[in-house]
Amino acid sequence: MASNAKSKPWLDRLYRYRSQVLNINLVVIQAAAVIGVGLIIYTYGFEHSSKIHEWFTSSSIGILGVFILSYLVRWIFTFERFSFLKDSGWEAGVLLLAAFSILLCLFWDTTFQYVFPSLSPDKARLYSETTVSGSLLLLIFFEAARALLRIAEVKLRPSAAFVISFLLLIMVGTGLLMLPTVTTQSDGLRLIDAVFMATSASCVTGLSVIDTTTDFTIRGQVIILVLFQIGGLGMLAFATFFATFLNAEVGVRQAGLMPDYLDGETLSNARRLLKRIILLTILIEGGTFLVMQYLWGDYPFADWGERTFYSLFHAVSAFCNAGFTLFTDSYHEPVIRNMYLLHAVTAVAIVLGSLGFSPLNNIFSPQQLRQRMANPWIDWKLSTKIAVNTAIILLLMGTVGFFLLERTNTLAEMNLTEAVITSFFQSATARTAGFNSVDIGQITTPAMVLLMFLMFIGGSSGSTAGGIKTSTFFLLVASVVATSRGNSRVEIGRRYIPSEIVSKALSIFFYGIAINLIGVFILSITESHLRLMDLTFEQVSAFGTVGLSRGITSSLSDVGKLVLIVTMFLGRVGTLTFAVALSTRDISRNYKLPKDELMVG
Questions:
Q1: pLDDT score at 267
Q2: Domain edges within the chain
Q3: Among 476, 454, 478, 458, which residue's Cα sits nearest to residue 467?
Q4: In 3D, which of 110, 20, 103 has the Cα closest to residue 65?
Q5: Distance between CA atoms of 275 and 526, rounded to whole angstroms?
Q6: How far apart, in Å, do the first and last CA atoms of the chain sit?
Q7: Is the per-residue pLDDT at 162 higher than 70?
Q8: What is the band of 236 on the pLDDT scale with cuts at 50, 70, 90?
Q9: Exposure string over 302-337, b if 16+ CB within 10 A, otherwise e
Q10: 316, 339, 368, 390: least surrounded by Cβ within 10 Å?
């Protein structure tokens, strides 16, 4: 280093101001990102003339130039420049796309029109605007991911950071859904309706006070899609996942924000597991998307682009257990209701999404598959076995129960195979997905009770599903069995379950019951014109982040909508997580109180 300094004194003077330059560079790039967000919202959120779009393109080119210069500054002031380029490959790729977009816009008339003679001026302008907007959005997303990771540096409990991240996502979603060009309604969305839809999408519920198909433009539908994709993974988890591709550090506090996803993994394995989860998400959603492309049959799409968007929207909605569809009557829509292979594929995606990322990694990880093949005695983790076995039992119980209860009702006009597939679909979707291939408003009361039971339990911990979770339900049953047999502790698979975990399961169950009882009580007052059974179904559906409805959501009063908004939020973040986030201090338990007896039962 000394010889280099002597031979290049200018380099020594340059690095003397390294920290100051990098700090200024950080402020500049954050300001550029904020201005970029404002430009995009102003341009695409409101109706404008073509001159405004030209101004947007010119302004975006300037902001992209700032991003490129910022990257060059970071490269100049890094000590290991080759490693910097290697580690920031994804960002460099987007910046190259941005540079190409700038060249395409600036030199179309003089150069590129001769390279692409088949493109008309209008199409060329559209493509150049699209590449500029897309590049700017990706770069802004990079900066947003970095900014969100800084939440981990604040001394907040993981539960509090998790709750705050969802509140932030809902606030952003609400603002975007109130933009004039997002809806087809002349006056736009009312605030309460925008909050309801943003909460429903962010909390992957699927309940709607307006028709997603007819009342939202394509921009609104894209916003809904992005909200339930981010909400399905969790905003902080999503940012941390994305940061792994930016080579950002995933430290102790970042890993602590995702204990359910990491499931006891060591910090050294956290980064690798996060990348596997991203890969699993892409593979499952991508595979579902590709299969759906060929399963729409003769549905009258306007063009190939609309067919592609519908496939993407429903693939992501299924895996995230969001329940949103682009059909007014969900899968009960004419033509769609008879596409049973499409129903089956959707149900499989729903089940995979509801299992949880840790079990999926435990089951499908190539490394763990090789280990089990080489060493057959290596078994799944206990949490994976509970998630899979409980899911199978609930799916079978729901399928058989719905088939028997509805065979002479909503399934009456179907043959045996169609009735079984429909029953399986409704059993799977009741575990927090929210699609329906039968008219939920016409099912019998016993079938409603069965679906409410499945909705209340929900999916597995660390998944995109809601409810009290299958592990909680399993522990409660195991605890009851152990108590009935006179055992003082719960043992599962030759493993002892600590009493603290059993107490946590009981707390979650109690909170779940209490929230639903309070919700139904308030709804019975504010919505006295509706049947109590329908209100109960709607409340449990909101708590389980399911989205199934008896068709009463849009007729609720503002107070009723507010009740469901709170319920959806608590159902997604978790009642116990929310309670812990609100607690202010830890109470020392380094003492013992006298024991006493209390009669129960």
A1: 47
A2: 1-153
A3: 458
A4: 103
A5: 47
A6: 78
A7: yes
A8: low
A9: eeeeeeebbbbbbbbbbbbbbbbbbbebbbbbeebb
A10: 368
